[in-house]
Design goal:
The chain is mainly α and 283 residues long. The protein has one domain. Helices cover 78% and strands 0% of the residues. It has 13 helices and no strands. The radius of gyration is 20 Å and the shape is globular. The mean pLDDT is 90.
Length: 283
């Protein structure tokens, strides 16, 4: 059932381009607003967010259990909906192609707008410094591709619908909060959830990319707890793509890196699905 659920969810995401048809977040923020009225929760660090997340998880657990008691297929369909909801927002591949198109046309303004949509600020970059902007886009796209799907797939295989829903709700809360301390604490929780998934992902990149270079990085950062997910991920991706330090300064290489990261992630997703299929067959 795990393989069928994953394949059906990935198929729908492929058809739609993203999970947008089921990614309606108003219900969660309504719960968050409800708990924000409780002063005792509001005074605690992340108290309102955690209360909203726990309430959501309890509700999903009961619905999933009820559907499972009726039919395993109903529970699987519900899991598909939660899986799609938990994936990242937007289509990062489309954003990457839009940026590459702007780079080809040397349209700095359009490239800056696309970069901003991907969470990369170009305001502190000298005009027409394409090498720096390309490098930042690679880092942003690497992380978005990872958190959009691979973290979700990792925790879904290990724990089902609850951990992936918790991850996405915490990420949404982190992106919406205006409290710097709360943002830092929520980012720390996300880092903890991403840490084991990133190690498996790094090993996968070694298989689908440059093995010797990426595997050396994988061993180097296997037990690292000081770097952020984004920093470690860039090391993994650049080693998998055989990026030399001096090549980062070449804007033309940055474009190649942007293109190749899409293919690298596609190959890695195929690898993960094949591993899940083998697990389903033999276990």
């Amino acid at each position: 059932m795990l393989l069928i659920t994953v394949l059906f969810a990935l198929l729908l995401i492929r058809i739609w381009g993203s999970g947008a048809p089921v990614q309606k977040d108003g219900w969660f923020f309504a719960i968050h607003e409800f708990f924000s009225e409780f002063e005792a929760l509001a005074r605690r660090p992340c108290g309102t967010v955690m209360a909203a997340v726990i309430a959501s998880l309890v509700a999903v657990y009961f619905v999933h259990s009820l559907l499972a008691s009726i039919s395993g297929w109903f529970a699987a369909l519900f899991a598909v909906v939660i899986f799609i909801y938990a994936t990242g927002r937007g289509d990062w591949a489309v954003s990457a192609r839009q940026y590459i198109s702007a780079w080809h046309g040397k349209d700095w303004a359009a490239a800056s707008v696309t970069a901003q949509e991907l969470g990369v600020s170009a305001y502190d970059i000298d005009g027409d410094d394409w090498a720096e902007l390309n490098h930042r886009l690679v880092a942003a796209l690497a992380y978005q591709g990872f958190e959009r799907l691979f973290v979700i797939l990792f925790w879904f295989c290990l724990g089902g619908v609850l951990p992936i829903l918790a991850y996405r709700l915490i990420a949404l809360s982190r992106d919406e909060t205006e409290d710097a301390d709360e943002e830092e604490q929520l980012s720390r929780v996300l880092w903890i959830l991403e840490w084991p998934a990133l190690r498996v992902f790094g090993l996968s990149l070694a298989i689908t990319g440059n093995f010797s270079s990426c595997f050396a990085r994988f061993k180097q950062f296997l037990t690292d707890t000081t770097n952020s997910t984004q920093q470690t991920l860039v090391f993994f991706v650049e080693s998998a793509l055989s990026v030399a330090e001096q090549e980062v300064q070449d804007p033309r290489f940055g474009e190649r890196e942007l293109r190749e990261i899409l293919h690298l992630y596609s190959r890695t997703m195929v690898l993960w699905v094949c591993v899940i299929a083998l697990f389903a067959i033999f276990f």
